[in-house]
Structure formats: C-alpha cells, structure tokens
C-alpha cells in the first residue's frame, strides 16, 4: 500500500512538473530589458521588431471637420524611439504641468509604455508583446506625431518630418 502511494505521489509530481504555466512560457522567451536596450539603441534592429502595419491605424479628421479617415500605420510613418523617449520618469515642468512616462502594463508577455502630461491625453503609447517565436515586438502604437488634430493636408509633411528625425536618429543609433 505504501509503495502505491509513493508511486502515485511521484506520478503527480511528474505530471504537474510537465505542465507549462504562462510564467514558464514567458520565461522561455527573450528578456524584455535587454530587448528594449537593443530596440532603443539600433534603428536597424528596431525596424525588425515592429509588426507593420500596426493594429491601430492612424485616424485623422477630414477637412470637413466631421469625417474621419484612417491610414495604416506603416514603416514609412514610424518615428524611431530612443532610450530617452522610453525612459520612465516624472518631470515637473516650469509651466506647471507634470510629464509622466512609464510602463502602465507590465505583464510577462505584454508591456505598455505611455508618456504624456498628467491629466491630459497620452502623447505616446507603445504596446510590446512577446510572440510565440519567443521574441518581443511592437504590435501597436499611438504617437502625437499623428494625433487626431493633425489636418489630413499635413500628413505628407508630417511623414517627411518623421523621416528627417529618423535620419538624425539613425546617425546616432544605426
């Protein structure tokens, strides 16, 4: 009888040890901190870790002031993110506002970074997800570059400005 209990307990231990948990699955992927360090220090790497087009399209108000028009958030519109942009901090501005940037969601397989003035709309929201290949990717983003108040007529000019900013960033972080 004792032998049966021992075998039963041993079987249960082996059975439970073989069932992966969400935490175990997340741990089998790359660590987020080294990924983020490389993501914000290499433009070439950054482009490889964004799932274009992003989930949420860019939505702008048409010239009539009532109609919305959407544009896919593609690689040509992506503003490169550096470590300064992705730094978690809380800064009191001289004008009185408080700028806050932090991870608002920090799960083993999903992270959301947000930045903007307190009690105001978010200026930047970046969603990272650990995908089944064990690697982190940006899967969604909102950026003030393409805020709702951007006139559609200025979209091309804004994309050009983003490209110029990206060129400068690529010189520092190839």
Strand order in space, largest sheet: 3-4-5-6-7
Termini separation comes to 68 Å
User: What integer value in Å does the Rg equal?
Assistant: 22 Å
Q: Spans of 5+ residues with little confidence (pLDDT < 50)?
A: 3-26
Q: What share of residues are in beta strands? A: 25-35%
Spell out the helices and strands N to C: HHHHEEEEEEEH
Helical content stands at: 25-40%
Query: With helices defined by DSSP (H or I, 4 residues minimum), what is the helix count?
Result: 5
Keywords:
two-stranded antiparallel sheet; 174 residues; alpha+beta; 5 helices; 7 strands; globular; single chain
Describe the fold and architecture.
The protein has helices at residues 2-17, 22-27, 32-39, 43-48, 155-172; strands at residues 58-61, 68-71, 89-92, 98-107, 110-117, 124-130, 136-143. It has 5 helices and 7 strands. It has 174 residues and is an alpha+beta fold. It has a 5-stranded antiparallel beta sheet with strand order 3-4-5-6-7, with no helix packed on it. It has a two-stranded antiparallel sheet with strand order 1-2.
């Amino acid at each position: 009888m004792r032998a049966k209990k021992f075998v039963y307990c041993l079987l249960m231990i082996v059975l439970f040890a073989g069932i992966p948990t969400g935490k175990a699955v997340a741990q089998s992927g790359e660590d987020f901190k080294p990924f983020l360090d490389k993501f914000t220090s290499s433009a070439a790497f950054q482009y490889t870790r964004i799932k274009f087009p992003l989930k949420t399209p860019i939505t702008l108000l048409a010239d009539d002031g009532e109609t919305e028009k959407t544009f896919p958030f593609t690689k040509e519109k992506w503003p490169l993110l550096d470590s300064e942009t992705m730094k978690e901090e809380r800064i009191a501005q001289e004008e009185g506002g408080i700028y806050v940037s932090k991870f608002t969601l920090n799960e083993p397989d999903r992270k959301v970074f947000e930045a903007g003035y307190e009690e105001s709309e978010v200026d930047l929201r970046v969603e990272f997800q650990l995908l089944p290949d064990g690697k982190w990717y940006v899967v969604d983003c909102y950026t003030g570059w393409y805020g709702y108040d951007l006139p559609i007529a200025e979209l091309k000019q804004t994309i050009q400005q983003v490209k110029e900013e990206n060129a400068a960033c690529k010189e520092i972080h190839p």
